[in-house]
Amino acid sequence: MATDSPQIDLDARRKHLARFQNADGGWGYFPGKESWLEPTAYGALALQGQPESKRALELLARWQLPDGAWHANARVKNPYWGTALMLTLYRATGRRDASYARALEWLAKTTGAEGSLPVRIVQRFQARIVDQDETIHGWPWRPGNSSWVEPTAHALVALKQSPRAGELADRIAEGEGYLFNRRCPDGGWNYGNKRVYYTDMTSFPETTGLALLGLQGRGAKELKPSIERALSHAQTTKSGLARAWLTIALRTHSVPVEGNLPTALAPGGDLAVTALELLAYDPAVANVFQVGRLHS
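User: That's the sequence. What structure does it adopt?
Assistant: Structure tokens below.
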């Protein structure tokens, strides 16, 4: 395992995840809470090669639906955005089987509800509410809903990492177009809208990082204002979640983040943030979201 950075206690974070892994092999968002896919996938990515990661993968494999999508936890059985995250996890851990193929097919066919007749009618009569092109499809949190920045970013990473990236170039380009269409005037991203009632929306650090993650491979010139905004967010945010995503995303664009490192564990023992901090600062697992690293 790579040598830990002297600026952040990575071992404490690994031990924290191991200590609060649930009996079923998953993680909740906080210690003692029921297992959910998102923190479990982040934990499995952060602890790759460890017994805890293997147990988490065994649990998650049981949560895949027949159509290829994953559901959120043992009780919530509807397909949702975490399928993209599972594709990233399966690729990172070298799993390329029928489960991966079914999930990729499901994700490639999933689109947001923007462009549907009800949405077009609302846009026609209430066009002043938002300023965006509803004909460009990203990805939704759940099928049948409108697209949002975060699930679109994760879907783009999953598709770009996949062996079908070339075949899916048009869908990837549309998803990237969705993100550019939703970019705020300050260069970053809000969760969905860039302008409402003629008022410019302010970008958020975590969604700015995620959008940049999804836009890997795009030109430096068109991303320049977004990189600058992300660096500004990275130096000022107090959110461990935001700082981790910004660090992960900027690394994929070969832009280092200096200073503003976390010291104590995330408030409340937040397990998703703990795992993301490992993915941001542990050299052993620092490139799992990098597009191209896993191609072969």
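The beta strands are 195-196, 199-200.
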